[in-house]
Design brief:
single chain, 10 helices, Nuclear Transport Factor 2, Chain: A, 7 strands, 2 domains, 272 residues
Length: 272
């Protein structure tokens, strides 16, 4: 239930609140209302998340800079996350382009394999409409998703090279790692240094990275599982400074970079 709520809301606290609320409703429901606990809880979580999504969309209209999901950061070697592909920062950013109703319908049907009848119940509509909603969302998502799989070892190697080049200010090496049309998304939420808009193009991304590397202190690096994939947590002493994740092209170059520096979204506990 947490996995479903988090993919819908993209923040840990909101997802945990939804799951707790759903659980309390389940405990107080009559046996006649709960013929299938899984279906009941899925419907309740989806409806609660839909209400939360509608409110979140209004709040994010005034958010400072790009909005990225709150990263789920775990130590390297953590047990692989189920449905990890649908948990990445890249995929969650893509979900932000859907309407709340489309997002809920798509996740229920395409990620959690709910029936169209269950989707219709969660969206309080009929089955025909639920099919149209999911089809519309599926088409949009397929247009934005890469059509290939990147080797995890390659991702780890590129991330290490990237962080080394950033720490040394090696513009030539950074440029070599980036695709020509690479995009950098940085989420500071107005509370930490970040670009106010996505930075598009390798040259611009390199200039931005070199610029900020000169302004910040030397950071320690903890490689981590970020939303089920390869990533890193950067620290300024004991204080978390940023979470880094990346998305590669079929050729193994960096297509998209994700930097989360908003302190409200950074892990408060040690990875050890």
């Amino acid at each position: 239930m947490f996995g479903l709520a988090y993919r819908m809301l993209s923040t840990r606290a909101d997802a945990e609140d939804v799951v707790q609320d759903a659980y309390l409703r389940w405990q107080s429901a009559s046996a006649d209302d709960v013929r299938s606990p899984k279906s009941y809880l899925t419907t309740v979580v989806a409806r609660l998340a839909l209400d939360g999504l509608k409110a979140a969309h209004r709040q994010r209209e005034t958010y400072v800079g790009p909005w990225l999901a709150e990263p789920l950061v775990e130590p390297v070697g953590t047990k692989p996350v189920e449905l990890a592909e649908s948990l990445s920062l890249a995929f969650l950013r893509l979900l932000e382009s859907l309407s709340p109703v489309e997002r809920v319908g798509f996740l229920l049907r395409e990620v959690f394999d709910a029936s169209y009848q269950e989707v219709a119940a969660a969206l309080d509509t009929n089955e025909s409409n639920s099919r149209q909603i999911v089809a519309r969302a599926r088409k949009h998502i397929q247009e934005g998703r890469p059509r290939f799989e990147v080797d995890r070892n390659r991702q780890s190697a590129v991330l290490r090279e990237f962080l080394t080049a950033c720490s040394t200010g090696d513009a030539t090496q950074l440029t070599a790692l980036l695709s020509k049309d690479a995009v950098l998304f940085s989420d500071g939420g107005g509370k930490a240094s970040a670009a106010l808009n996505p930075i598009i193009g390798a040259d611009r991304v390199v200039r931005f990275l070199i610029g900020i590397s000169r302004k910040i202190p030397a950071l320690s690096i903890e490689f981590a599982e970020v939303n089920g994939g390869v990533g890193a947590l950067l620290r300024d002493g004991d204080r978390p400074y940023s979470v880094v994740a990346l998305e590669l092209t079929a050729e193994g170059l960096i297509a998209n970079l994700y930097l989360v520096t908003n302190p409200d979204k950074l892990p408060r506990r040690s990875l050890e």
